[in-house]
Amino acid sequence: MTFSLWWLFTLYLRPIIKWFLRKTTGLCELQRICYGEVNGAPRIRAVERSLALSKSQQIKQLLQHLNDISDNRRFAGTNEREVVRGAVSTVLLVKKVNPHVHFQFVRSLGICIEQIWGYRQLIAEVEALRTTKFDSDCFEHERKLYDLWDNLMPDEGLEGRVTKQWQDIGFQGDDPKTDFRGMGMLGLENLLFFSSEYQAPARHVLSHSHHPVYGYCFAIVGINLTSLAWQMLRDGSAKTYVYNTSKSLPSVRLFHQFYSYLFYEFDRFWVECKPRDIMEFSSIKDRFESNIRTSLQDGNTTFRIGVSVDNI
User: Fold this and answer.
1) Quick one: how far is CA 163 from the chain centroid?
2) Coil vs helix vs strand at 98
3) Maximum C-alpha span of the chain
4) Where does the record locate the signal sequence feature (predicted)?
5) Angstrom distances, CA of residue 143 to CA of 139, 158, 191
6) pLDDT tens digits, residue range 270-291?
7) CA 296 to chain centre
8) CA–CA distances in Å: residue 97 to residues 92, 103, 109, 279
9) Rounded to an integer, what distance in angstroms lies between the CA atom of residue 202 and that of residue 209?
10) Crossing angle of helices 77-95/103-130, nearest 10°?
């Protein structure tokens, strides 16, 4: 029933409403959105919906062109500026908007296009990391693994490449490479970013993972949270965070920041739940995910790590 009503609205009522508002306001739907919606996720999401529902063949061709560019990770540098400029020009032409009169609309639309297709490109960039397998024969991969150890355990040297010491930072066995299979290099890159960019919070979380009652495997939980962050990026839930946080073209760094927030907050949530043992991980993780997804439904949501030292 809900789908039928939405189909009816989209097919018949929406065009009539759009025509009426265009006649009465002198503004196209995209202009009304850019002038009327709050900057950030509410505006960008509304522009995204409007473009996706457009009946114009020129707009449809433009969207296919932008999708191709972002999917192939060619939306950057000089090309980014040219692509945004060309996309805005196409919309102005189709919608018969005078750029000299509506210069603010031109700027706002350009920002929306940058964020919408920057997000799509970010998915491609993160997927490339996820599908890159950890290679113990690769010097760069090995260096990052050692850097992770040094960030988390600066006062203790590794006895060797394969050692039980890796379990001290939450890997399952003597060789961490086997734990990266599901998320590939994305899992390592996320852990390394969290431990280097948020060193104090990361060590704080690591200390909680060593608790005799509420402890857990730091690295394994971190890789699980990489999977959660990736799912929310791919299904679009993370758009609220990205659109409200990014000041330029969304980058992998922004995804790492999103992940770092999730890890820090999951640790806080885990401690608050006071689990009996690690067997409660799945149920607590599901509740945590539900809370995060609910927060992201608010178009004004932003996430920042707020460090607070507690004793457990």
Assistant:
1) 34
2) coil
3) 75
4) 1-26
5) 6, 13, 14
6) 999 999 989 999 999 999 999 9
7) 11
8) 5, 10, 12, 59
9) 11
10) 130
**In whole angstroms, what is the distance from residue 204 CA to residue 97 CA?**
54
- Both tokens assigned to 283: 């149920």
Q: Which amino acid appears at position 272 of this protein?
A: E
Q: Report in angstroms the alpha-carbon separations of 12 from 4, 17, 66, 255.
A: 12, 9, 28, 39
DSSP sequence for 180-228: GTTTHHHHHHHHHHHHHHTHHHHHHHHHHHT-TTT---HHHHHHHHHHH
φ, ψ of residue 157 to 5 degrees: the values are -85, 155
pLDDT band at 309 (very low <50, low <70, confident <90, very high): very low
Looking at residue 161, the DSSP 8-state letter turns out to be: S
What are the structure tokens assigned to 178, written together? 């086997």
- Return the closest-CA partner of residue 221 out of 254, 178, 179, 177: 179
Both tokens of 152, joined, read 């988390």
C-alpha–C-alpha distance, residues 185 and 188, integer Å = 5
Q: Tokens 């990489």 identify what position? A: 226
Residue 167: the pLDDT is 97
DSSP 134: P
49-67 per-position pLDDT tens digit: 999 999 999 999 999 999 9
How many Cβ atoms sit within 10 Å of the Cβ of residue 188?
26
Q: Where would I find the H helices in 12-165?
A: 14-25, 29-36, 41-52, 57-71, 77-95, 103-130, 139-152
Specify the length of the chain in residues: 312
